[in-house]
């Protein structure tokens, strides 16, 4: 039976870009760059004052022992000096302004006292270059400031803006469809009978995709009938990613694998060595898209989104996978299954280093099992007991 | 001068809810609950089979030594048994179906072989309750499943859906305005002269708010003139949160504090013991809203969003603050400033436990300083050298 690592490998091997598109920087947050961001000029673009103060020649203090200078003019950010700093003179300068010709240091305004056109220094320059960000010290013109396939977070947005990318090439988003299966499943707004449950998986899966800016997947609720399933799946064969929940286990009404294959979906694997979520089914659509058949219980669905659909999506986008952290486990936990076991944990900071505690978890069907968790930790198949202070792999949601 | 902890306290003391509103569950992702989510019935709502198999009386195996039973009927999820399980009989049952009356255990289909109406067991029940999720074991009717003011992530979305909250009361979002100041600052799409720089702060700040579902703040670019600043600020006095960047330090054109106060904005503090970002200004609008005057350099802006605006926002929403983790520092770092110093770090997993390495960081004006970082770590003011394996406070972006 396929291991978790093998499953991830088989899944990511099917990944391919959904194409590229040019969008406005205003829409780019949480998308993925399909081009590198190149420095259009040196950064800083000029020798920039990093403090409010006086632009001076350091040698006036270090070699000539002066303690006062003549102020030639006031220079603001966004301005350019009309004069040159020479020995015995200085220019009052504000943070962000270009250091005038002739000057090689800035003395903070806090260390000075100006009277008329003369400034007296209570502290003097200790070296040339003081309080100056040198042209090109952060990046050189034509440097790759941000590599292609970088995830566009707030830091990347800032870098794109400063280098003038009002528009930017990004990875296209996939078309996604979610089919929640089961005769017992009813829609959230509908009345529910005592032997039925409401559909929660669609909402959990949709939230997962929402994080990736995929706003409106097609969602379908399908009963456990071959006809209904066939119809539902047929209507979304043109998607890039199809996620089903339920119908992939060993029950007599678990028609999902059979119906998928009848519709030309190619099975890559069925069942893997994991708890929860062993019945996982994965295959490819006739158009090359991916099909994830998840078991129907809510914990399995959330675990599979994080461990399997996320790596697929990020590989399609060409962006690096989110690796697990290694953190000390602060509870004790006996082994419950023969497979690798993933269980919801919360980060707590009690001792010198933050660690993990496991949460109450009745079963993989427990509707509250993941509430309040920060992610899932791995209890490896070959470890009988997770004892306190064991380092464990931890996957943030 | 105000410490970081004092600043956070002064800021959060001004926080108040932006009101509540009822929205569809479809819009609720990454919002904050303004009501608790109550279990509308027991969960599970019935004794639920957690495996595909046979619903039996455990005593038939444990006490009566049987190894085959008569199959009365097949029961699917979403169905209800028409008969009762008695000694010597069983009902074939699928995962998710309600366990029929009389049965108290489920034997996995993998451990059986059925011939006609008789099923033979290769493994038998080891206890009553086996493979059954008991009614109410996850939550009891009227239990608070999810407390008020919880952040609505994928796990909470699932909980809301299963309990039938098609609509839900959430905390309203604030009206936000961002004013980027400076004569040297030009808009991203505009031509930039050699002594000018493009506005990146607006994009970084807007991305920060985007994470909180605040999509379209008012954004204004204002030059360093009292008239222009007055006009810009006056136009957004009705917002809940006003963020300015630049103009709060000691330069001769740093008019922001003066103009704010002339417009009736009350100063709570100016300047705090932090690097980068010491000139931070905080006050309250006449309408009770908050004004953050951030220093103009990009690293300060990102640090201030994380350390000061985020706690304000989360306190307004009534949701818990994101506490720093304690992680081992894997580099070495000498002290650069007399204040608490926050510097960009990346998480790396080399040894037994994940730790932090600091990134290249020329200065707080470095446009690339935070690129590739996972967050910021604290170098406390009273620690000369951060040596390898010191636990440090780490704040995820």
What general form of chain A does the structure show? Answer: elongated
Figure out the total of helices of chain A.
7
* Uncertain regions spanning at least 5 consecutive residues of chain A: none
Instruction: From the alpha carbons, calculate the radius of gyration of chain A and give it in angstroms.
Output: 30 Å
Q: Whole-Å distance between the termini of chain A?
A: 26 Å
Number of domains of chain A: 4
Q: Tell me the fraction of residues in β-strands of chain A, as a range.
A: 25-35%
The main sheet of chain A comes to: 6 strands, mixed
Describe this entry's structure for a reader:
Two copies of one chain form a homodimer. By secondary structure, chain A is an alpha+beta fold. Chain A has helices at 4-12, 58-62, 154-162, 201-211, 226-234, 256-262, 298-317; strands at residues 20-24, 37-38, 48-49, 53-56, 68-75, 89-93, 105-108, 112-115, 118-121, 132-133, 144-146, 167-171, 176-181, 185-186, 197-198, 218-222, 241-245, 266-270, 274-275, 281-284, 290-294, 325-328, 333-334, 340-348, 355-358, 375-379, 385-386, 391-396. In chain A, the strands form eight sheets. Chain A has a six-stranded mixed beta sheet, with no helix packed on it. In chain A, strands 16-13-17-21-20-18 form a six-stranded mixed beta sheet, with helices on both faces. Chain A has four domains: 4-17 and 173-317, Molybdenum Cofactor Biosythetic Enzyme, Chain A (3-Layer(aba) Sandwich); 20-40 and 147-171, Molybdopterin biosynthesis moea protein, domain 2; 48-133, Molybdopterin biosynthesis moeA protein, domain 3 (Beta Complex); 325-396, Beta-clip (Beta Barrel), CATH 2.40.340.10. Helix content of chain A is 18%, strand content 29%. At the A-B interface, helix 3, strand 15, helix 4, helix 7 and strand 22 of A face helix 3, strand 15, helix 4, helix 7 and strand 22 of B. Chains A, B: Catalyzes the insertion of molybdate into adenylated molybdopterin with the concomitant release of AMP. Chains A, B: It catalyses: adenylyl-molybdopterin + molybdate = Mo-molybdopterin + AMP + H(+). Chains A, B: Its EC number is 2.10.1.1. Chains A, B: Keywords: Magnesium, Metal-binding, Molybdenum, Molybdenum cofactor biosynthesis, Transferase.
